[in-house]
Amino acid sequence: LITADLLIEGIHFNLKWTSLDSLGHKSLAVNLSDIAAMGGQPAYAILSLGIPAKFDGDKIAEFYRGFNRLAKRCGVALVGGDTNVAESLIISVCLIGNPPAQPVRRSGARVGDDIYVTGTLGDAALGLALLRKQLVGAKSAAAVRPLARLHRPMPRLAIGAALARWKLSTAMIDISDGLLQDLGHICRASDTGAIIWQQRLPLSRAYHALAGEMATSLALNGGEDYELLFCARPHQRARIETLSASRRVGIRRIGRCVMAAQGITVRDAHDAPIAIDVRGHDHFKK
Q1: What angle do CA 235, 238, 240 make, to 5 degrees?
Q2: Cα 280–36–143 angle (5° rounding)?
Q3: Is the dihedral of CA 256, 260, 263, 264 positive or negative?
Q4: What is the pLDDT of residues 141-190, one digit of tens each?
Q5: What digits encode the pLDDT tens for the residues 259-284?
Q6: CA gyration radius for the chain?
Q7: Which residues lie below 8 Å from residue 107, measured CB to CB, with a gap of 6+?
Q8: Which one in 84, 109, 194, 235 has a CA-CA gap of 20 to 30 Å to 69?
Q9: Whole-number Å distance between alpha carbons of 83 and 125
Q10: Which burial class, exposed, middle or buried, applies to 84 when counting CB atoms under 10 A from its CB (0-12, 13-18, 19+)?
Q11: pTM for the whole thing?
Q12: Residue 58: how many CA atoms within 13 Å on its side-chain side?
């Protein structure tokens, strides 16, 4: 398995809001999440940096500390890369992983499959909204979790590997650009539609406390959760519940796959469709 990701200062991160240690962690984490989404195990990383002339050795060492700490924790060897001078900080990571016997693709979902997510949704987007002052409460105790989820995501490697090993998941992706946008990738690859139940979305206490008028919009469209979104046959429900309990990671059934002609809909507690605007991350929007 091979994945690559590019992070550019001023587009993907703001050094006024994050430490270089956290940035090093996140640079590797977003790639680890891609490997997790296919049920693989990471092995080797190549890291290339475009470094502003104003940076000194201590700043770069701080970045590498964050990167290497997570690499050690996840069994990744940094085997090469490149550096050069740049106008702003540019981070390019290529990660190579070992696949399971049957890698989980995006194309295996079928009509009638359940749709699941790990963890909670919207926390990272909530943290970004707080930093941008779109919401109040950035200095409150409740803000600690969403800010941590934004700056230091933890990829679901163990859960992804177990889903693949036990053949529980029919299709899987990590949530980087928003739940609805990434679900769309699975639906297109699998030729299905999807129904999501709004009341089943897993939301943290911090989200309930701070999201306010944004309701569930951040959970549906926010992105950077780096949780796993996967589909599974209904007869696997008990085994998925057992996996969730054994790994102490929340896994919530949030919807089901339907005919492709039905598209993707979100329904409220009364099973009525909710007007939604799919606004996941646009990589070319300024």
Answers
A1: 95
A2: 55
A3: positive
A4: 888 999 999 999 999 999 999 999 999 999 999 999 999 999 999 999 99
A5: 999 999 999 988 888 887 765 555 54
A6: 19
A7: 171, 189, 190
A8: 84
A9: 31
A10: exposed
A11: 0.93
A12: 1
Provide DSSP, the chain. Answer: -EEEEEEEBTTTB-TTTS-HHHHHHHHHHHHHHHHHTTT-EEEEEEEEEEE-TT--HHHHHHHHHHHHHHHHHHT-EEEEEEEEE-SS-EEEEEEEEE--SS---SS---TT-EEEEES-SSHHHHHHHHHTTSSS-TTSGGGHHHHHHHHS----HHHHHHHHHTT--SEEEE-SS-HHHHHHHHHHHHTEEEEEEGGG----HHHHHH-GGGTTHHHHH------EEEEE-GGGHHHHHHHHHHHT--EEEEEEEEEGGG-EEEE-TTS-EE--------TT--
Amino acid at 18: T
d(CA 227, CA 251): 10
**Is the CB of residue 146 less than 8 Å from the CB of residue 130?**
yes
